[in-house]
Amino acid sequence: MTKLTRYLATTALAATLAAPALPGFAMDVTIAQTSAVNTLDPHGSASVGLDLSVLSHIYPTLILREPSYDLVPSLATSWEAVDDLTWKFTLVEGASFANGEPLDSETVAWNIARVTDKENPKRISSWFSQIEGVNVISPTEFEIKTSSPYPALPAQLSMFMLLPPKWAAEHDPVTETMSGYKYQISEIVAGDHITLEPNPDFWGTPAQFDHVTFRVIPETASRVAALMAGEVDLINKIPASEIARIEASPNAEAGAVDSTRSVFIKFNTEKAPLDNKLFRQALNYAVDKELIADALFDGAATVSNCQVMTPDYFGYNPDLEAYPYDPDKARALLEDSGVDLSQTIEFELPSSTYLQGEEVTQAVAQMFGDVGVKTEIQAMEFGAYLDKYRKAHDLGRFSLLGQAWATIDADGLLTLFKPGNQYSYWNDAGFDEQLVAGIATTDEAEREAAYKKATEIMCDEAPVVFLYAQPATYGVSGRVSYQPRGDDWLRAFDMTPAN
């Protein structure tokens, strides 16, 4: 994406000067991010932990996902499924952007048309491919029509931010903003930080901080040092081994919660010998997942029970059990598989991508080796890995991969393994049949039954080595109270002043 090199003032000066005095705010707060923001267009990014986290302070969504993962009203006060193909929404009355443009049904319809325009697709257009159109009933009521049942639409809309149509026609949303939510941008220093200040025209509960600064600190050690020195108030993605050290500090505390991201060893079943089910099952028995969770993550990681979903997902199957660590059974299955173990299998590692991913890859490779499976670790930049994974469709036979789906719904995450999906590298007709059944209705019981069967098939067929839910580690200063969350969002409105 385009790197930001400039910031153009976007608020209407006269409106700002005429705005009523803001209530007293408690303090400034600083959030550390690992990378610089790539775009200010909320339709041009799917990066929750980076671009969208910053932009969620500036642009409104119809629905908000809380740290508990509950979906709560934001611009939309209510929503309901009228039938399998129709969702109806009611909006807050009188809401507007800082330039006075209304936040009404017509604005929602324009934004949906923008991301569903096949002639000019956006980064997030695939999220809404099932939407056929919007029926505007009144300024505060509208319906979204879909081509097929879309039970996860409200969850997906919690990530969909709204731009002002008239403003967007005259400005570049990639490099400029016009606030319709709690904060507006006051300063950008490219590659270093973005600072926000309260939007005096916000239609909802006022912002709680005088300024929110997103500061770029790529190195883990530097983020930890900045937190302990009182320079930042929130950091994430820290090694589990750092939690105790931060906890010992008088200025900060740290912890971990299960994230919605599962980490596993991805198999390219389109290449031998990963097309051999017994070989895949053997590798699941070969890995001591409990040891990895305890030794590498100090017990902060939860072992996956034979599925890629975590318990927070709709469609999670609580009845499945993890493959136990059984190297003898692994060796027996390897022998039964007939696979030639003299070969060395490439093991691709996207560098500096997943929490302690290098350590995990080395541990798994060692365990594979202990049962006679030779590997060669091939580290590469994440961009190069994605090129192989998505563009070239030439993923290595083994690779470390972590995946999540922002709707926290099986119809998103499991689709990454659906036959024909570019991300799948696995083709199972029975699994596909259950996914089709799961998205054919909005009836929750029918959907759960379909996903239960799908996860059972996936567990048995083992297209991955199921490892663990990546812990969402964090450190927070004593100046604020923070509600930890495991879905990558970094938001000032998940924090409150401690005193």
TrEMBL record:
GO cellular component: ATP-binding cassette (ABC) transporter complex; outer membrane-bounded periplasmic space
GO molecular function: peptide transmembrane transporter activity
Gene3D superfamilies hit by this protein: Dipeptide-binding Protein, Domain 1, Dipeptide-binding Protein, Domain 3, Periplasmic binding protein-like II
GO biological process, one term: peptide transport
Intracellular or extracellular location(s): Periplasm
PANTHER family, alphabetized: OLIGOPEPTIDE-BINDING PROTEIN APPA, PERIPLASMIC BINDING COMPONENT OF ABC TRANSPORTER
Name of the molecule in the record: Peptide/nickel transport system substrate-binding protein
